[in-house]
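User: Round two. Same drill as before: sequence, then structure, for each protein.

Assistant: Same drill it is. First protein:
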Amino acid sequence: MKAKLVSRLGTDVSAAVNGSPLRIYAPSLRTLPEGSLLVMATLPVIDWNDCLLRDLRALSDKGCVHIYAAMVMIDPFACWEDFRDLLKGAGISGVVNFPPASIIEWPTVGIPLSPGREIELRRMEWFASLNFKTMFAAATESEITVAERRLSSSLQGILHVREEDLAMRIEDEMELVSGGQQVLSIPQFSLSGATSSKETGRKKRE
């Protein structure tokens, strides 16, 4: 009997191989203090994209076809061409807007599309034009509808991010639970929290 293959949000790419489920690569999470809640990832306490950039520079081409690099797509200071080159150099062919603009900015009720969300979608469209696959993190069904229309064939998955998810404790490995295909013809996932194994807790880092 084959072991169950589990999709994850993780801080490294070492556990991802061809033929495995998708993996959201978020090395920036490991720079947060041990025991932090996921809400810390939405606050300006670290330079999220710079942490990813430094990690990418240390990677060689691993052919990570199922990896989606987690990026803040509304970063006004990012050099996106550097990300393009480093992602391709590492063999990473997917990007995801995590943490999403809708969680970072908390748009005003009644406004269907916040300015940050539009910037985010345009940046993801840019990655899609470069043949990157996209995964879209969203808090509402309306955001998913817009992403499906705007990202079209590049869109490979949806990550539902709920407000209550922000109270989860960050771990090096966080399982993604499949939400089925009730609305779209693409995979949908949600965070289930940290892995249950005591041995996969966050490692001490200098």
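Second protein:
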Amino acid sequence: MPVVVVESPAKAKTIEKYLGGDYRVLASFGHVRDLPPKDGSVDPDQDFDMKWEVAADSRKHLKAIKDALKDDQNLILATDPDREGEAISWHLLEALQPALKKGSAVHRVTFNAITKAAVTDAMKQPRQIDQPLVDAYLARRALDYLVGFNLSPVLWRKLPGAKSAGRVQSVCLRLIVDREMEIEAFRAREYWSVHARLATPGGQEYDAQLVSLAGRKLDRFDLADADAAAMAVSAVASRDLTVASVTAKPASRNPWPPFMTSTLQQEASRKMGMGAKACMSAAQRLYEAGLITYMRTDGIDMAPEAVMAARDAIRARFGEEYLPKSPRMYRNKAKNAQEAHECIRPTDMMLSPDRLKVAADDQRKLYDLIWKRTIASQMEAARMERTTVEIESPDRQVGLRATGQVMLFDGFLRVYDQGRDDEEGEDGARLPAIAEGEAARLVATAFETEFAKAAEKGDDAPAAPAGQRAAPGLLVNDAASTAARQHFTQPPPRYTEATLVKRMEELGIGRPSTYASIVTTIQDRDYVRKDKNRLIPEDKGRLVTIFLLKYFPRYVSYDFTADLENELDEISAGDLMWREVLGRFWKDFSKALEGTSELRITEVLEAIDDALAPHLYPPRADGGDPRLCPVCGAGRLNLKTARSGGAFIGCTNYPECRYTRPLSAPDGDEPVGDRILGIDAGDQISLKTGRFGPYVQRGEASEETPKPPRASIPKGWDPAALDLDRAVQLLSLPRPVGPHPEDGELIEAGIGRYGPYVKHGAKYANLPDADEVFTIGMNRAVEVLAAKQSRGRATAAAPLKDLGEHPDGGGIQVMNGRYGPYVKWQKVNATLPRDVTPEDLTLDQALELIAAKAAKSPAKAARKPAAKSAAAKKPAAGKAGGKKPAAKKAAAGKAAARSTAKATGKAPG
């Protein structure tokens, strides 16, 4: 029978079910060959000759395929329908060539969904391997190898602590570092907005915002401070107001197109907090189960039959009013048509998420997202009415505006609404019926509750003129009918995985199949960390980026990387020769590599130090030199590398001055460097910062004392506020509290790996606050230890019924277990039959159950404990260790079963 090869066992299992016994379906388990991770795997001097190696794990899979081909030489390569899938088929054919006889039939088939119809149709339309797609793969693989294996060693030699560089990963890292520098360079700008609560003649209230003052339209920063805001509040509160116009305009919202790879990753991140890698893993499982179409695509078009199926599902589920008169057609925006596939959609539109039989929670959630987006994409637009109300004073010195929106028909929004990365401030407030020319009355005490909450924040409030009150960030008139709110411009937000993928897509960097691996790699390299779903560059990530920008600017350029991606797309379309593209790249890249050969580490560090100066040495509050050493006052701060790798800030006056600090502090705190706190008992007490955070130290390391006493700063303590007395207290821990009143053993208090504690012998009990370690007395210590002991003591479950003694000794009880009642004798537990209740169980019945259980599990049957001699523990000379004791154990179990059976009159087994 013909041999069909796919990537994964799950896919093989599904396809074999569709094809039946006429085909043999095997899995290659992904790529079977790759470039060996060593120099020379790609040789630029030999026209970029590439040396491939079969992975050790792949040899057995290849052997299974070769063995199958002995029976039938008809080979069908059915790997995924994209560039990577084409490459896997090419590798398979190359590796299997020795096993194929001359004239053997080799075909390539592709299908966008693993359904019976799609698979059987594909088998009827075989083709040859698409060589331009393979060439595009070869070009990308060679480029990634040449960059990684030539640029990474430069980083290792010139920038200790750096791990690697990559053609696209380094550009992606630059995006994150550039954004972080934008945030650090950002200076907030203050502005105020003025609001009023108004009422119609009928008493219905609504909010309006000041939009013009003194007859002039207000721009964002026109009310730049509290004084200007106070004048505006007075102007509004002192005037009568009238509705000048009411404008209602119909509006509509069209649905979003169905998912492609990047938009699926973005929406999974927004709505489910799912990273790109996790998203693609769940999608892969759904695809292999035949539930969705292929999940690596840059296309948004949908097959005509799928469009009609979606329309049928909408009609059946929501009715004709939710169905547009004609199908919605979405144009594919991919530049390379050969690599553009259908959108990501369910294979069966009628299979709604509530009917899906999938155990994994992430797969169910992702399918729900895909189904809703697909169905919504073919639904009617949402219709609404947007109303704008203009309010003016008679002298036209004051103008306010109220806006609102009314949903007339929800359309596709009944099913799906796309998430947002950041608030866009769309006004969806409902407005009452308002008529042009009617009075707009100011509502007293409208902002009273808001003012009371603001006043609780503290005393940092602006000065308020007569007739007004002030709280932090808020001004109101005495009647609290008008309010001014303080705002500050915000820095650009840090990237999430969703917004990073979106930005890479906008710039043309990377492709659908690479987004997840790129974002994952920069985190695995410790160049970036994720905090509350935001991506923050680590210090080594900054150093790598600045190094590459300084010495390899072209290869981390957004435009250059995007242009190279376009050339690779042209290769896959058959419009460019892959070796020509590699030749042009290598000619310039090798020159750039040669330019770094004479670089010294000190020269590199100086260049990076200058580039990062605004980040490393922010302006001081007193206006002093930010590079001046805060300890010795003579040396200057600069970037240094540690012997173990990584970098830190140190004083040029070393070794006389040993001040150091990390490049940055976590959570944006001001870094605290080394400083001397004072002298205690002739020893210098210092505050230092190590790889695990700040700590205090007594004395300095020497030959006599290589490891001087140290103590970490407890969590919640401010290192900047630490003084000598507090440091000496930390270094004196653990602190004796006194002898325990019951046994006289010493109780101690200290701070350990898991926080503050009290200790009595080998028993520990946690304390809620580190400060209590220095003040806790005997009564409190005994109370904490006793409470810990009572919490840790397990309460034995009470038996449901005592049945009496077993003939071999030991009581028999009926217990209530997790899976129902059971009989317990020593170590034998026998479940009660369903038709027997604990109340009705007799001793004879219990003995029968125990005997039956002991016969089934002889090795676990209970035995009377017997003292073991030293000789018994030792295996006899000349005997194989381990076999004899096992036999004895089984025999003992059988003996116990026989004794139980004897008591009940039943034979064991």
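The two ends are 48 Å apart (CA to CA).

User: Perfect.
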